[in-house]
Amino acid sequence: MIELRHLRYFRVLAETLHFGKAAELLHISQPPLSRQIALLEEALGVKLFDRSRRRVELTEAGRRFYLDTGAVFSAFEQAKRNALATARGDAGELSVGFMMSTAYSITPTVTRRYAAHYPQVNLKLAETLPLDLAEDIYSGNKDVAIMYRPQDCTGLETITIFREPMMVVLPPGHRLRGRDVIDPAELAGEIFIVTPKRIAPALHDMIVSYCLQHGVTPNVGLEINMQQSIVNLVGEGMGIAIVPRSMRNMRLSTTTFKPLKNAPIIEVVAVWKNDNHNPCIATFVESAEQAWRDVEAAWSEEERC
């Protein structure tokens, strides 16, 4: 069987054309080198060197073999670099699921930063309902999820990558459109459009708890899965909604976003299974944390200005 060391012996001899010098460079004695070259020629079925007492020369077959083995060693070195990059999480494949609402906040920032810093990673993104994201992580369909914190984190790792206050979004001509800040008590009697608890329990419970704490029992008129659909329906005059601040980025002319008094803060987290050993997870999480720090710094700069 031809081994990589046989090819290395051959190439050093081909470059020195001297058994003694080649053996010295390879840190072996000359007789074992001669035997290995003979075994290589026997395995190939061709003569690679013309030998005489005074000189060693490559045959035509030897010259061709030298050229071709150069490609072998180049490929081997690239394979080593690829293996090292993959082990560090600098290369490989990563499947990420995200809630559509985060497309208006942190997901574009995170994925742009990650793609720029780790171009060798095949990043696969898929929009998924919060209901399904945790299950995708448990089942292995996704490596990482960008979502609201799951209620049950058994077997999962999570890290916060985004925080933002909730705001109330009002339809055209609403009586509260002129207010700078909305007291939640003023929302009594309004028709609420909310996300069903089974779809996004963390978000649903936050909104309901916030209202109850301020003496308001939400009058739920519509339950809608997607935050952007909720905002659109508010714009159509179907009710009001409490949504993450980033939903303002939809920039609908038919809606008005207003800050809430003592507004609750919603967290977006990166979630992965604790026994998923894909090294790209660590680099993705690191990028997500840095992206969040960059966003916070930008917000602080805007406030100073």
UniProtKB/TrEMBL annotation:
GO molecular function terms noted in the UniProt entry: DNA binding; DNA-binding transcription factor activity
InterPro entries assigned: LysR_HTH_N, LysR_subst-bd, WH-like_DNA-bd_sf, WH_DNA-bd_sf
Record-annotated HTH lysR-type domain positions: 2-59
Gene3D superfamilies, per the entry: Periplasmic binding protein-like II (3.40.190.10), Winged helix-like DNA-binding domain superfamily/Winged helix DNA-binding domain (1.10.10.10)
Alphabetical UniProt keywords: DNA-binding, Transcription, Transcription regulation
Alphabetized CDD domains for the sequence: PBP2_LTTR_aromatics_like
TM region(s), chain numbering: none
Superkingdom in the source lineage: Bacteria
Gene Ontology cellular component annotations, sorted alphabetically: protein-DNA complex
Family to which the UniProt record says this protein belongs: Belongs to the LysR transcriptional regulatory family.
The name this protein goes by in its record: LysR family transcriptional regulator
Organism lineage string: Bacteria, Pseudomonadati, Pseudomonadota, Gammaproteobacteria, Pseudomonadales
